[in-house]
Design a protein that fits this description.
Length: 433
């Protein structure tokens, strides 16, 4: 077999093959014999069909099988012989099998490019302050009180700011010249919906129209949506509303006392709750500072490294980001196809971040290779146990799932990259702000 290696660029490679005609004919003979032994043709016993008839009857299938036997084997042998590792299965051009002729074809693929890391002995980063302020603690208490707020029915006053209003609503979208004419124009009717006055999701000007209305009141009004409004199907349109107030509920936040602390969790007093809040905020602040240093170091290394990022890996990373968003929507019981998302636009927005993510990953892989950073069973067991605790599963069950889905290799790669990050951080001069 003749093989020619063509180095197109740092990442794009070709292997050109020529498999001799005698090898091709021998494989055709072998495959045809298998067909002869299993073929069912009227008038002939199994295994006794003449070879000529078998070759005529199953010609296309035989040649197809020969190609799928010879080509992958030849490609695998050539890659192994040259120590090449494609980033994905090579694409094959040509590869037409003909009896009595050599089989010629080209395998095209991408590889990780040679990476010039530059100096990683002079890294530096500032670490943000992790000090917790009284204002941070106060905001945490406010969030907890907001989460514990209740809504009590009121009947002796009109709608006020922060009320929850139960109403029936009809909306009629009006077209204008700036709007896609495919926007639905049928009235939308909703009954017994709850609107919290002041919520960020409310349409611009909607709250103002409800303020001052009493239970039983009906009001009609028109709103104009800004051109940059989200969802986009309402951007730049006018909508006529008709609302009927059915109930008003007043928002009541709990008092900040020992009883509140007991309602929140296993705390005997507000002092204990405050201590837990401070501990949580401090831990989050430390983690955020560590992540900031980590991001700074990776950015420095990525900026110093010189290489061409393979487009195939960028596409995979972009696909992963799209799939992750779709998965989150499904978890929130939102149909990704019905969500107000321009998926092509989202893909475009993810292109540059995907390049940076791939670039950082390849830099870490190269550092791990140069520094002989390895991952052993103890490392894997520790990570499996950590993930299992977060997922509320046993380590054995999680490991079994990872093995079944091929996830252990991904986990190993992740751990190895984290070791590369730790190595870089150990060589980084860190100043605290």
């Amino acid at each position: 077999m003749k093989t020619e290696f063509v180095d197109i660029s740092d990442t794009e490679k070709n292997l050109v093959f020529e498999i001799p005609s005698d090898v091709v004919d021998a494989e055709i003979e072998r495959v045809a014999l298998n067909y002869r032994q299993s073929a069912r043709i009227p008038g002939f016993r199994r295994g006794k069909v003449p070879k000529k008839i078998v070759r005529q009857r199953f010609r296309d299938q035989i040649l197809h099988d020969v190609a799928h036997e010879l080509i992958p084997r030849a490609v695998d042998d050539a890659l192994r012989e040259r120590g090449l590792e494609p980033l994905e299965t090579p694409s094959i051009r040509d590869g037409l099998v003909k009896e009595g002729e050599a089989l010629t074809f080209t395998a095209s693929f991408e590889t990780v490019p040679p990476i010039e890391l530059g100096d990683y002995g002079s890294l530096s980063s500032s670490r943000p302050s992790t000090e917790i302020s009284d204002d941070d603690i106060e905001q945490a208490f406010t969030r907890l009180r907001d989460q514990g707020a209740r809504f009590d029915p009121v009947e002796d006053r009109p709608v006020q700011q922060a009320d929850s209003v139960i109403l029936d609503l009809t909306r009629q979208v009006e077209h204008n010249d700036t709007v896609d004419k495919s926007t639905p124009t049928e009235p939308e009717r909703h009954e017994d919906i709850a609107i919290e006055i002041g919520a960020s999701i409310n349409p611009p000007g909607f709250d103002k129209e409800l303020l001052g209305l009493e239970v039983g009141a009906t009001k009609e009004f028109t709103l104009s949506y800004p051109m940059d409004y989200t969802p986009k199907e309402l951007a730049g349109v006018k909508a006529s509303y008709s609302v009927t107030i059915k109930a008003i509920k007043s928002r009541v936040v709990p008092e900040l006392d020992d009883e509140f602390a007991k309602d929140i969790g296993p705390f005997d007093s507000l002092v204990e709750l405050r201590e837990q809040i401070v501990e949580n905020l401090q831990r989050e602040s430390e983690e955020a500072a560590d992540q900031q240093v980590r991001a700074n170091v990776l950015k420095q290394m990525s900026g110093r490294a010189q290489f061409e990022v393979p487009e195939v890996l960028v596409k995979k990373e972009t696909d992963r980001r799209v799939e992750e968003l779709a998965r989150r929507l499904i978890q929130q019981q939102v149909d990704p196809m019905k969500a107000n998302i321009n998926w092509e636009e989202f893909r475009e927005q993810q292109h540059e971040p995907a390049i940076e993510a791939v670039r950082s990953a390849l830099v870490l892989d190269e550092i791990a290779r140069r520094e002989n950073l390895t991952v052993d069973d103890t490392d894997i067991d520790r990570e499996v146990t950590r993930y299992a605790e977060r997922a509320g599963r046993t380590p054995a069950a999680l490991r079994a799932r990872l093995e079944k889905e091929g996830g252990l290799h991904r986990l190993q790669t992740s751990v190895r990259r984290e070791k590369a990050v730790d190595f870089l951080l150990s060589r980084t001069t860190i100043a605290t702000e």
